[in-house]
Amino acid sequence: GENVEQHPSTLSVQEGDSAVIKCTYSDSASNYFPWYKQELGKRPQLIIDIRSNVGEKKDQRIAVTLNKTAKHFSLHITETQPEDSAVYFCAAFDSWGKFQFGAGTQVVVTP
Amino acid sequence: DADVTQTPRNRITKTGKRIMLECSQTKGHDRMYWYRQDPGLGLRLIYYSFDVKDINKGEISDGYSVSRQAQAKFSLSLESAIPNQTALYFCATSETGALDTQYFGPGTRLTVL
Fold first, then answer.
1. H or E stretch covering B40
2. Which one of A99, A100, A106 makes the best mutation probe of the B interface by having the most chain B beta carbons within 10 Å?
3. Please, what's the b/e burial string for B19-56 (b: 16 or more CB within 10 A of its CB; e: otherwise)?
4. Nearest CA to CA, how far is B109 from chain A (Å)?
5. pLDDT tens, B52-68?
6. Helical H runs in chain A?
7. How does DSSP classify residue B44?
8. C-beta pairs of B59-65 under 8 Å, 24+ apart in sequence
């Protein structure tokens, strides 16, 4: 089955700097890659996603890139703000119709 | 997302007790999922159902069972709860046939003493 690895597990950035989170997956048939943001005590919420026929997608300060050959995808947050502090999860939709999640990255944005 | 609801939101129980967590959705989605979340381990799939007659085990199904009573309802049971089942449990739904993302319920925090 699919295996998704996510790095780093924690990330501390200064407000205004950029944050990058990377994920790798094992199932070459995976074709959909969402990113979720989870604030403390809340449910995971979709923030951006990318499908396998696209290499990059951007939505304001967040962007996701996908390298199908290398089987990795990344989340980029620019001009970070304190409200970006949360746990971020990547996921891959595998060939069995299930989502496999990374272990999560705790992002802390310090003023 | 108010379209996916879970009850109870918090539960404290004792070892050996039977517990049922319930999930309801008004999104009209065929697919429903149960996950547990533990610190540092992300979201791990317990069971999933692609329609009322289709139920499948996830990666950590031991000690759990499920029931899909209707398209809109998917229940998770712990027949005899044990302390290492203390976790945050999420239900999620997604649409069949589309590369659509999952919509999560608010979660149930379960503590087994």
1. none
2. A99
3. bebbbbbeeebbbbbbbbbeeeebbbbbbbbbeeeebe
4. 10
5. 999 999 999 999 999 99
6. none
7. E
8. B59/A1, B60/B36, B64/B34
